[in-house]
Design a protein that fits this description.
It is a single chain. With 100 residues, this protein is of the alpha+beta class. The protein is 39% helix and 31% strand. The protein has a single domain, classed as Ribosomal Protein L30, Chain: A, CATH 3.30.1390. Strands 4-3-5 form a 3-stranded antiparallel beta sheet. Strands 1-2 form a two-stranded antiparallel sheet. Helix 1 packs across helix 2. The two termini are 19 Å apart.
Length: 100
């Protein structure tokens, strides 16, 4: 499911079809810094769960390390919860919140 859904509104004539885009706010998966998990392990977890390339995993890990947290994924609520659960099962501190 994408953050945008297209809704078609039809009138009596096929030539009078109107397209309206409804945008839903995405949900963010946030990983928080912890003093226990080695940085390399965080990179490996990101690669395993999200399939991100090494440079992106490294960039996200460094953001977590230096800023205390990083948004590692955003999108549909159910998928965000799924990813958060996977990250927590792998030993990372993670949470989900609706984008503002």
């Amino acid at each position: 499911m994408t953050p945008q859904q297209r809704i078609l509104l039809s009138t009596e004539s096929d030539t009078d079809t109107i397209t309206r885009v409804v945008t839903k706010k995405p949900w963010k998966v946030i990983v928080w810094d912890d003093p226990v998990t080695p940085m390399r392990v965080v990179e490996v977890i990101f690669k395993k769960i999200f399939g991100y390339p090494e440079p992106k995993c490294t960039q996200l890990m460094l953001t977590v390390h230096h800023e205390g947290k990083a948004v590692v994924w955003d999108g549909a609520q159910d998928r965000a919860i799924h990813y958060c659960t996977q990250l927590q099962a792998a030993g990372l501190m993670a949470s989900v919140e609706e984008d503002k």
